[in-house]
Amino acid sequence: MFWHHWFAIGNIVAALGIALGAFGAHALKGKLSPEHLQLFETAVRYQMYHAFALLAVAFASTRVDNMVIKAAGLSFILGIILFSGSLHCLIFLTDASKWAGPLTPIGGFLFILGWILLATAAFC
Questions:
Q1: pLDDT tens across 51-68, in order?
Q2: Which of helix, strand or coil describes residue 122?
Q3: What angle do CA 6, 43, 36 make, to 5 degrees?
Q4: Distance of CA 78 to the CA centre of its chain
Q5: C-alpha span between 87 and 94 (Å, rounded)
Q6: What is the pTM of this model?
Q7: Dist. CA 13–CA 64, nearest whole Å
Q8: Burial of 41 (C-beta count, 10 Å sphere; 0-12/13-18/19+)
């Protein structure tokens, strides 16, 4: 991927995070249990953190274009889908805990892997 792809994806993920955060603060408050509202906020917060991580990948790929940076970006994208996405499924879908619950730590691992890969890219 070229740097502008990472930049666009990071900005789209951030825009969705802002929209979801506003939706949670205005439309879901009082409709979700405090536990589910906290899960929703966690999902959105980690989505936003990793939107910024994708912007870091875009910046890094302007300096060095290698597979390590690409792997970092893909780890962040998959992490967002699995971590944040699974939390949303746990909140809004009944019986999702059987299949979505195990995906959350995998997404968290992918976040950690993405940061390690991004740091490693500095030495490649």
A1: 999 999 999 999 987 999
A2: coil
A3: 165
A4: 7
A5: 12
A6: 0.93
A7: 23
A8: middle
